[in-house]
Amino acid sequence: MASADLPEPDRIEGAPHPRQTLRLFGHEAAEDTFLQAYTSGRQHHGWLITGQKGVGKATLAWRIARFLLATPPDDGGMFSPPPPTSLDIAPDVPVARRMLQLAEPRLFLLRRGPNDKATALSADIRVDEVRKMKSFFALSAADGGRRVAIIDAADDMNTGAANALLKLLEEPPAQVTFLVIAHQPHRLLPTIRSRCRELRLTTLPPDPLARALAQAGGGVEPDEVQALGELAGGSVGEAFRLSNLDGLQTYAALIRLFGTLPRLDRPGALSLAEMGAGKGAEDRFDLIVTLLDLFLARLARAGASRQLRPEAAKGEAALFTRLAPDEAAARAWADLAQTLSLRARRGKAVNLDPAALLMDSLLKIDETAAQLALR
Predict the structure, then answer these.
(1) Rounded Cα–Cα distance for residues 169 and 178 (Å)
(2) What is the pLDDT of residues 110-132, one digit of tens each?
(3) d(CA 352, CA 333)
């Protein structure tokens, strides 16, 4: 397999790449923070863009990069343009067209590359990739102007790469802006965090989530948006994944199955478990494990708070009221949630039968429901 044929590591399968997504929904505060820094002349050389996976961090990074490379600097002259009020850049300007094709000479994209044999993506960002970026910035910019680096994502860097990036942040090249994307910033070197100004993105409420899905071409029906928002935790990336894998339908099937607790419908459970088994079913296995995580978390939260969130599937509210009537039941479900998905994922990592792993999880849930029913 040629390296050019490998999937892009910073792209959700089936969704447009963030560089193709011109609009960002629900993060006006973060955009305003960057724009104020830019117009005041106090723009930082390093920006750490953080938040839950899939909320729009990469889209924001590409918007900022497009803005910086397409906006002429203010030379203070009489005929200087007025200060910009938005990060919007028309898609037909030359910089935007070049960035879309990954052909902009003043932009460096640091992400996971091919492995040593170019047969698959590397598991992490290696120090050699950061050294390429250093060499890139050692060259003079084509027009002597701004240059930008997007690191997507810093979570993927190995130790050597992280230390090499830190050196660049400590002694940044002239007129270079680093846009560092991080899903779990607490796992980065503290010195990397301290060299950057943070832009934290929050999860998306239903309306921005719906607009972001529509822009991405998710094909989500209006009456599905709230349920997707509940399961995706306000992440458009996760909502897109759930939509592509029929996550709403699978979660509805789980709710119907768990309606038989504490006398689990064994044939129905086996049928569901077998959905995550077989060649090419890895995504389906991961989906079911994720949905089991969500079910238990939502169930425990409902019992602990005695408050029900909007339903993610028909019958969910009544089921939660029955299975978690008090705080003691909520604690039992929360304890199960802490161990169940870890058992399944570890088992999958050592090549245990996926259907057996899923069936084991379903039986553990049935066992807990039976114990609670005897109290």
Answers:
(1) 8
(2) 999 998 888 889 999 999 999 99
(3) 25
